Amino acid sequence: MLKDGIIKVKVFGKDKNDKRDDRSVVQLENRLTVSIPESMIYTGFKPTVKRYVAKWFEEHKHDLDKSICQVVVSGGRIASITEFSEFEIWFGETQNPIRTLINMLQFGYDVEEEKCYKIKLKSSGQYLLRNPDEDTIFFGDTRIFSRLTKWQLEESGFGWVFDCEGIEIEEVEE
After folding, report:
1. SS3 141
2. Cβ contact 11:41 at 8 Å
3. 3-class DSSP state for residue 93?
């Protein structure tokens, strides 16, 4: 009896030896290489998620089924009684958040690129710098600046810079 199923394959691209335009060469898990119709290849499983979803997932992936149940049973409220976390808001507003989390477990995921900022104190001209070796952020007297994401700033206790009049913020290319 034949059953539908999904297998992981490595897609190499168009088959140059096959005259039909709609075929690609794929390598199966057992290293066998075959030419199949492109309509049989589905690459949409690997989701791209925000950093806070990836962080929650990494903290809960070893007991994902139980963690998802806790979120569902609690109505999405898991962190605090007065405020929803970014993850809780995402879970409540996203179509099929459970499917996304399961796909992350099965197929991996990509983290959405975030905007980067250059942060400068208006009064002294100091830039906010990040020392990746010690994972610290600080103001320093230099012309060199760090490209920082909003998430990096908030995680390091510098989220307040977005609301401060004494700070000059410039969006920069990563």
Report:
1. coil
2. yes
3. helix
Cα–Cα distance between 168 and 162 in angstroms, integer?
Answer: 9
Does residue 41 register a pLDDT over 70? no
In Å, what is the CA distance from 78 to each residue of 66, 82, 89, 104, 125?
A: 13, 11, 11, 20, 41
Query: Which amino acid does the sequence have at 151?
Result: W
Reduce the DSSP state of residue 173 to 3 states and report it. Answer: coil
Three-state DSSP string of 52-87: HHHHHHHHHHHHHHHHHHHHHHCCCCCCCCCCCCHH
What pLDDT sits at residue 2? Answer: 63
Task: Please check whether residue 50 is in contact with residue 111, taking contact to mean a CB–CB distance below 8 angstroms.
Answer: yes
Instruction: Provide the 3-class DSSP secondary structure of residue 103.
Output: helix
pLDDT class for 136, splitting at 50, 70, 90?
confident
| Per-residue tokens: 129 | 């710098």
DSSP state for residue 133 in the 8-state scheme: T
Contact 43, 11 (CB under 8 A): yes
Distance CA 172, CA 33 (A): 44
